């Protein structure tokens, strides 16, 4: 079922969402200022291609220890991200999710946009793991 939902997601808009995140990550990687957020944007882009069957957790839970992204530097990077990009990207995912949840068939896809909105708010220090 997860495979079928991921295929539907990919062909009905997931490709565009993932591609937009990857382009955003490439733009961030080209600029020296945006380099700290590029890895997070690439991670979200790959997650956007097939979000069913995966979830987002703190990297500290996965690795068992703190690193640069999960410590105080990660907090600062997430605050800067939230102020300059995260809130309106999350708002776009929330609006898309709300529109999709209007129909019964669209509810699973709307819930995936809500997951993307949550990671879009503070992506630094997160990992995507199988659910």
Short overview:
By secondary structure, the chain is mostly helical. It is built from five helices and two strands, in the order ααβαααβ. The chain has one domain.
Could you characterize the architecture of this molecule?
The chain is built from 5 helices and 2 strands. The chain has 131 residues and is mainly alpha-helical. The chain has one domain. The model has no long low-confidence stretch (mean pLDDT 91).
**Can you summarize the main beta sheet?**
2 strands, antiparallel
The percent range for helix content is: over 70%
Strand content: 5-15%
The total count of strands amounts to 2
Q: What's the domain count?
A: 1
Short descriptors:
single chain, 71% helix, mainly alpha, 2 strands, globular, 5 helices, two-stranded antiparallel sheet, 131 residues
């Amino acid at each position: 079922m997860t495979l079928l939902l991921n295929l539907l997601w990919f062909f009905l808009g997931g490709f565009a969402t993932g591609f937009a995140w990857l382009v955003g990550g490439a733009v961030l990687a080209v600029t020296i200022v945006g380099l700290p957020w590029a890895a997070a944007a690439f991670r979200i882009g790959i997650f956007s291609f097939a979000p069913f069957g995966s979830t987002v957790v703190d990297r500290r839970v996965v690795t068992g220890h703190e690193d640069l992204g999960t410590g105080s530097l990660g907090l600062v990077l997430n605050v800067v991200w939230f102020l300059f990009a995260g809130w309106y990207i999350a708002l776009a995912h929330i609006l898309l999710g709300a529109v999709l949840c209007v129909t019964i068939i669209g509810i699973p896809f709307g819930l995936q946009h809500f997951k993307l909105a949550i990671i879009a708010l503070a992506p630094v220090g997160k990992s995507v793991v199988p659910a």
